[in-house]
TrEMBL record:
Residues 40-215 form the AB hydrolase-1 domain. It comes from Marinomonas aquiplantarum. Transmembrane segments: none annotated. Pfam families: Abhydrolase_1. This is Pimeloyl-ACP methyl ester carboxylesterase. It comes from the Bacteria.
């Protein structure tokens, strides 16, 4: 049995992996690891280290969870056997996005949080999936289940995010990256910089936005199966 510990993205829960599970062989076990409810990345990494087995693990992260997985790997490389980053390149948070998050936090503090807007959910999908009501409902349902406190914690704790590409290059473990070709959250410059660094084996997921595990679950499962059992 190959166990893979999976870290979700901002405002995502274990439903992120459910459909992909249907396409995986029975010898693959995806173990959900919720984002720790801590006030900083350092504290989240410390919390995960206590949760995970002492022996080196297979680690997969999606979006913010991918950055967290990368942070754990570069700080404690002896605890990671193989790493997969999905929809995140372990880069620093662009200043524009940092400012947007601060604006969102200020708004929530004043007005409260009533859930992710439909338009925001659609923006995380490829153009061909933006009218897929099942996907939109799933994104909104995961967001609603976690609620305002989790949103504030996750956005606040991840504001300070150093670039990890150089440190990832120093690791002696296999690293794989899955990136949707229509993921607007991954800039062209960051994609090229990561590819040029030769840090990892790179896979483009075509006709796909940010939400790879739910938008293209069969394709996602294919790469997970191949990369963690090779």
């Amino acid at each position: 049995m190959t166990e893979i510990h999976c870290l979700p993205g901002t405002m995502c829960d274990e439903r992120l992996w459910q459909q992909a599970n249907e396409y995986l062989d029975q010898n693959i076990l995806l173990t959900h690891q919720a984002i720790p409810f801590e006030s900083s990345l350092d504290d989240m990494v410390a919390c995960l280290l206590k949760r995970l087995p002492d022996s080196p693990v297979n680690l997969l992260g999606f979006s913010m969870g991918a950055y967290l997985a990368a942070a754990l790997a570069v700080r404690h490389p002896h605890r990671v056997q193989r790493l997969m980053l999905v929809s995140n390149l372990a880069t620093g948070l662009p200043e524009a996005e940092r400012q947007q998050r601060q604006v969102a936090l200020n708004w929530v503090a004043k007005q409260g949080y009533s859930g992710i807007p439909r338009r925001k959910a659609q923006s995380m999908l490829a153009a061909s999936s933006r009218d897929n009501e099942h996907l939109i409902a799933l994104i909104q349902a995961m967001d609603g289940a976690l609620g305002e406190a989790s949103l504030v914690q996750q956005l606040t704790a991840s504001l300070e995010r150093p670039d990890l590409i150089t440190r990832l290059k120093e690791l002696k473990i296999p690293i794989h990256v899955l990136a949707g070709t229509e993921d607007s959250l991954l800039s062209v410059s960051d994609r090229q910089r990561f590819k040029d660094s030769h840090v990892a084996e790179w896979f483009d997921i075509h006709t796909c936005g940010h939400m790879i595990p739910i938008e293209r679950p069969q394709c996602f499962a294919k790469y997970v199966q191949a990369c963690f059992t090779e």
